[in-house]
Amino acid sequence: MNGKRLRLWDLPTRLFHWLLVLAIVAAIVSGQLGGNLIVWHGRIGIFIVGLIVFRLAWGVLGSTYARFAQFFPTPARVKAQLRGEWRQPGHNPLGALSVLALLGLIGFQAVSGLFANDDIAFNGPLYDLVDGALSNRLSGLHYLASNGLYLLIALHLGAIVFYRRVKQINLVRPMLTGWHEDKGEGEDARGGGPLALIVALMLAVAAAYGASGAWLPEPPPPPAVEIPAW
Amino acid sequence: MKSAVLLAVLSLSLSGVASAQFKSEDAIKYRQSAYVTMAWNMARIKASVEGAYNKDDVIKAANVIQAIANSGMGALYQPGTETGKGWEDTRVKPELFTNKEGVGKAAMAFNKEANEMARIAAGGDVAAAKEQFGKLGATCKGCHTDFKIKK
Question: Does residue A222 sit within a domain?
Answer without folding.
Answer: no
